[in-house]
Structures are given as structure tokens and as C-alpha cells.
Amino acid sequence: MNSTQSTPALRTLSVGQAGDERAIAVLHREATDGGNTQLVWLGGYRSDMTGTKAAETDRLAAELGLACLRFDYSGHGQSGGAFRDGTISRWVEESLAVIDAHPAERLILIGSSMGGWIALRVLQEIRKRGSGPKIAGMVLIAPAPDFTSALIEPALTENERRQLSERGFFEEVSEYSPEPNIFTQALLEDGRLNRVMTGLIETRCPVHILQGMRDEDVPYRHAMTLLEHLPADDVVLTLIRDGDHRLSRPQDIDKLQAAVRAMV
Predict the structure, then answer these.
(1) Which residue among 13, 130, 185, 187 is least packed, with the fewest CB closer than 10 Å?
(2) What parts of the chain have a pLDDT lower than 70?
């Protein structure tokens, strides 16, 4: 394996004010072709930066000579911090800090599931600054913006509502891990403050959404709803008839990489 294909060295970045610091684990591949484009991987809820789609995104960056930035949110993967302390605001803060620490002129944000929500919030926060990197494109895989208020809260059972009230969280069985998913009251409340599907989402860049129609975690109709909030001329929606939520099969990875290549 040559040096361009080898895994970048793991580094950590401290994020947060005194008393609330989190050590965020980062894998950063530097560009080798002298270009100024950086791929930024934004993972999903309870996923990490070493998953199939993230690793294949890094491999594509190496092939194209692009920079690639992967990291774990606090409470995820190799990063510090407690998962139960996690909120959308907290993970957006970490995402921006990591991006700021690895400057590039052009960014292509690649968000998977919850990472699609994080990507949209990161774009909004960078736009507010009026300076910084240009968001040159977004690839959103089974995106789950506003999932706390749009998908979780409407489906809460009486028992789950009682657990939230009495314990501050509830658990549910995960199909992807032996550990249960944990949803806290703080996550739900913060999610309402970070909603993006409340009006027109001004991306000012091309957006490609990849969505499986057999996705039981984020129904494909959620992607259709997101589409209504995005400028139609700049958006491509690819519905994968037999695709599930992971979209990690070879044919799904091919579609992901084709979408990223088109952005580049």
C-alpha cells in the first residue's frame, strides 16, 4: 500500500470551554495534488469515522489527491466525552472546531443520517460568519435533519415519555449495536432549537441526496420533505429502490463516490 492510500495518523483536538473540554479524535488526509478541495465526513448517530462509507470516502480522496477530514463526535468512537451529554448543538460546535483547525478553500460536506443534519447546520453557521471556506457541494446519505422532532417525538410511547420525565432519557434496542440507543431530554429539547426544515434552506451549492426506499430508520418520505425546503435547481435526489438505511453495499458506495466525483 503506498503512502497516499495509508490511513492518516490519529490526532486529537480539544474542543469546549474550561470544564467542558472534549478530546475529539481526528483523521486528516492532506491533499497531494496541490488542490484546495477537502472532503468532510459527518457521521451518523452512534456511528464513527472508521465505518465503511467513511473509509471509502477517504479512499476516494486519496485516489483523487484531495484532502479528507474525518472525526468522531464526543461520546462516539475514539473521542472523549459522554454520549449522554451529546446534543446537536454540541456536535455542531465540534464539527466547526475541527473544520476550522484544518482549513481549506473549498469544502464538500458528506453527511450520513444525523450527519446530514449536522452538515446543514454547519453550512448555516459558516454562512453566518460571512468568511471562511466555500461550501462547494453537499452529499447527504439517508439524511435525518430534525429527526428528533420529526421522527422520534411523534412516535414516543407513554412509557418512553414517562422515562424522559422521570429519568431524563429513554432507551431503545439498536439493530446496529448490542448497546441500546439512548435519547435524552436534552437532545430532544436542543433538537427543536436546531431545526432546519422550518423554511427555505439556502445552500447556494449543489446538493445530492442518496436515499434507500427500504430505509426503516429514516423513511424515504423524510428525504422528500427535505427536498421541499431546498432550491430545486440545485438538488439531485437518487432513490435506491432496494436500499436500506446503511447504504453500505458495493453498489451503494459506487453511487456515493460518483456523487462526490461530480461535486469535485
Answers:
(1) 130
(2) 1-5
